[in-house]
Amino acid sequence: MPRLKLSPAGRQLDVRAGAQLQDLLFAHGVEFPCGGHGRCKGCRVKLLRGDLPVSESEATQLTAAELTAGWRLACRHQMTADLELELAQWELSVLTDQTSFAFTPGTGLGVAIDLGTTTLAAQLVDLATGNVLGVQTSLNPQARHGGDVMSRIEFALRGGRPELTQLIRSQLGEMLRQLLGDGHSAPQLNRVVIVGNTVMHHLFCGLNVACLAEHPFQTDQPGRFQFSPRVLDWHLPETVSVEFLPCLGGFVGSDILAGIVATGLHQCSELTALMDLGTNGEVVMGRHGKIVCTSTAAGPAFEGARISQGMRACTGAISNVHINHGALVCRVIGGGPARGLCGSGLVDAVAAGLELGWIQPSGRMTVGPAMALTKHVSLQPGDVRELQLAKGAIAAGLRLLASHFGASREDVKQLHLAGAFGNYISRAGARQIGLLNLSPERIVLAGNTALLGAKMALFDGAAKWDDLARKVGHLALNELEAFQDIYAEEIRFPKAEQLC
Q1: Backbone phi, then psi, for 61, in 5-degree steps?
Q2: Was domain 109-263 assigned CATH 1.10.3720.10?
Q3: Which CATH class for the 3-86 domain?
């Protein structure tokens, strides 16, 4: 049986011959943004001992110097003999929630789950007091088949849908088991509420995702789904109700529905917006009870994917860049050497480049082939372009939603930024690149509104949430005549005098 040694952690794994490194290394922090197709360098590992012949993908993606130094793409290899690989140690912080809210006391226990594309968060709640009794977080195990929803849709359409469904149901079942401890709490559990985007909703519920892979990117099964623990293979009493809350339309899921309630947007009298920045940037806007949502194909740049040295917001990622006497100063998560750049660091780096004149409003660099951030991490022209495309889609969506209300972007009184990326992004940096061209005091870092809303749903009847979901309108940007022109305008970075 081959042995796999992981350094510097010192872990040793006895594995079966022929096992794919992709399956073995995901749990140890190796990312597979493109789903293991050899199209990116997100799964780089360094060969310290053993033999991994260079594949065609590696010869294309890695330089001769990197290959000579032992760097390989984990997705291209399997275990045939003993190996020792170097993995950078990492730690991923998953955003949870400790916000207090008004509720009508109930009895027993409930569990709220935020089923994210990248991370999972679950909280055990005492329904009599509203107190959080336990928290469990995890990476979404589906990520070994792609870091973004489109990669997973592609894998599902190739026959992988049952595997994706089993992976997420099994992982959430294990998180529930850990939340309930020795099992004495299980009889008190009454309800589990799950929220997530439309793709996560469909994959958990075992639904066909083909409708989300082609125009008009709509589903005819957006509603609330209820399951018994037996169907999910969860070892819980059959009296426990497990519900996945309804989606709102297109790629806008129940995580945004939960965010609407968590922020009180459905009760606002002034024009208010909620935004969740990810692979599919979701935006919702409302006033006086009228609510409209949309999704934009922002791409995975905000999550560090498709960036030359991009990575998740974990140990070793540059998360903040600022200027000090004309020089760049980078903050690295964990305080050690920089390994790459996460989404918030990407926004800051480009904002700094614009301020220093190293990047022009067109996106062209003026400082050579790359912009050095640290000794080993730099910003490439292609990275700037990826950010332009992502921010252009988001900014266009915000403008078009405001226009739907007969207003302009400047009329938005408050914008709630939800999710992990929204929690860490610099408001000044987001304004500098034209992502959020609003004065900083109007932007609220709202935290994990999906998890907060799921907790609030534990205390409500399902009818309330179903009714609200039906009232939210959906705007398909690709069907609007003005979208392409506005998108093209928003791709450019603003000049200083254009900032409001």
Answers
A1: -85, -30
A2: no
A3: alpha beta
